[in-house]
Design brief:
By secondary structure, the chain is mainly α. About 90% of the residues lie in helices and about 0% in strands. The protein is rod-shaped and about 210 Å long.
Amino acid sequence: MNYRSSSAVQDGGQPTLLTSRFDALEDAVQDLERQMGSVNTKMDTFETTMAAIHNQLKAMKESNDKMTSQVTRLELSIDSRFTEMDDKFTNLESSMESSMDSRFKKMDAKFTKMNNHMKKMDQSMDTQLQGMNSRVAELSSDVNSGSKEMTQKNDKTSIEKWRRPCC
């Protein structure tokens, strides 16, 4: 409906005033419509930007979730490997310790056996040396007695030689 051609007010100067007011109002409405169009465009751009940001944030969250999952798997793998290595080291250490203990016990047993054998040999040699010392003492005594007898016989023979007249 065209309000300009309407003659609701029949006053002489009033239609012109009303027309100019109506034109101003119509211009204001058109300006407001342009501004609303601009605001709508800006709102659409803002909504598009927000949707893009939302999509980027969603993609970043998904990427972060994937990285978190990968880091968790890596941590579990590293923990598993360290546990496995620790178990192997502990088993190896225990095995070496047991082996060394066994070797030391064997060596200790050999040293104890050798020490006992040396003590027996020492006692046997002491006994043999005591026996030899006894025999040497007996022989020495026998030699001394025999030497005295021979000296006495020799002395008698010498005395008799002096007593006999010669040829």
